[in-house]
Amino acid sequence: MNAPHALTGLDLQLDTVAALAPGARFTLAGAALERMAASRAAVDRAVARGQASYGITTGFGAFANRRIPEAKVRELQVNLVRSHSVGVGPPLAAQHVRRILLLKANNLAAGHSGIRPAVVEALLQLLEHDVLPVIPGKGSVGASGDLAPLAHLTLAVIGEGSAHQGGRLLEGPAVCAAAGFKPFALEAKEGLALLNGTQVSTALALDGWARGRNLLEAGLAIGALTVEALAGSHTPFDPRIHAARGQAGQKRVAAAMLALLGESEMHSSHADCDRVQDPYAVRCQPQVVGAAWDTLEHAGRVLAAELNGVSDNPLIFGDDILSGGNFHAAPIGLVADFLAIALTDVASMSERRIDLVDRRVNPALNMFLTNEPGVESGFMMAQVTAAALASENKTLAHPASVDSIPTSAGQEDHVSMAPWAGHKLLQVCDNLATILGIELLVGAHALDSQRPLRTTPALERLHALLRREVAYQPRDHRLDGDIAAAARLVESGAVAAIARGG
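Above: the chain sequence. Below: its structure as C-alpha cells.
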C-alpha cells in the first residue's frame, strides 16, 4: 500500500486533485499540525477573555452584531450547521465529494482557522474509507463560501448526516463509524471553519478544467481528421503564420495539428486542387482552439492558487483574529464562466465542421455522406443534434458571475454564483464531448468512403480506435448508440492521448 500523502495546506497540486481516486490516503503534515494547534489555542484565548470575534462570540450574517456568551459558543456552532443544511436538488457526484473533502482538509491545514486537527483528520478518514457525505448540489451562492453544501458535509462529522459507502446509504452516527471515528461535539469556531470556504465551487470548476483539457486535446485529433476528410489544406497550420501573431495557444495548437497531419496518401490525392482557402471552421482552428487553450491555462493558474488558498473567515494570525472576505468565490466563478465561454466556442466550430463534411467542400463525398442521396439521409440529423447542443451551450455560456443577488438581510450583498457557474461548465463539457463524438463519427465515415486512400499513422490510429467501438456501416442506420459510444470514447482520454503522440 502506498504511503499517505502529507497535507501541508501549501502545496497541493491540480493533477493530484483531478486524479483523486476512491480510497486515497492523506495525513496532516507535522508543520500543519503545529499551525493548527496554535490557531486553536488563539480561539480558546479569545473566548476566555470575551473578545468580540465574528462567528466565535457573535452571531452570523445579519446577526454579526449579536454577542454570544461563553456558555453558548458550542451551541452556536452546532446550530450553525443544522440551520445552514438547506441544500436542494440532486446530490453531487462521488468524484466531486471526494475532491471537496480533500480541498476542505487542505484549506484547514494551513492553520488559520482555529479548528482541532482531529476534526480535519475525520475528513481524511471519510475520504480514505470512501464514505461520501450526501451533499445536495444546489443552494449555494458562492459567498459567504459554499455554506449550504458544506453544512451537509459537516453533518457527517457530527453524526447527523447521510453518506454513501459503496452501494449502501449510511445515516447519523453510522456515517462516523464507517470512517472509524466518533461524532464530534464542535468547539468554538469549528462549525464556521467547516462551512466557510470555496471548496464546492472549486471542485466543480476543477472538474470542468480537467474535462476541458481532455476535450481540447481530443478536439485537436478530431479536427485534424476532419481536415483530411475534407481534403483540406495544411498551409493554415504553417508555423510562420502563427509566429507572426505570437499567441501562445495558437502556436501550440497549430504545431500539434501539423504533427497529426503530415504527409499521407489522402493529402497527396488533392495536391493539384485549385481550392485556395478552406472555410473558417477548418483553417482557423489554431486561432479559436488556441484561444481556448490560453483560457484553460489561465483558469489552471487561478485554480492552483485556490487549492492552497485559505477561504475561511475570520482568519487567525497569532492572537489577531481578522474578519475579511476570502470566502468570496469570485475568482472561481469568473474562470468557470470563462472556460464555459471558451469551450462553447470550440463546440460551435466543431458543429460547423460536421456540417461541412460532404461534397460542398470535397467532391469525393456525397451529400451528408449518404450512400444513395435522397433514398438515404446519412448524417443529416446527426448534424441537427450537434446544432441543438451547440445552441444549448450558448445559453449555458451566459456568465453566472454577473448575476449577484443580495442575501442575509443585505449584509451579504454581493455574491459570486460560482457554484452555478461550475454546474453550467460541466453541462457545456457534456455537450462538447457529444459534439466532438459526432464529428469523429463523421470524419471516420468520410475516410472510409474514400478508401483505399490512407491518412497519417496518427489519424489511422484514431480511426481504428473508433472502429473498435463503432463499426463502419455505409447505409442508413440508427445513430444514437454510435453517438453515445463516440462521446464516451472522447471522454475516456484515449483520443486525447493520440493528439499528444500516444
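The chain has a mean pLDDT of 94.
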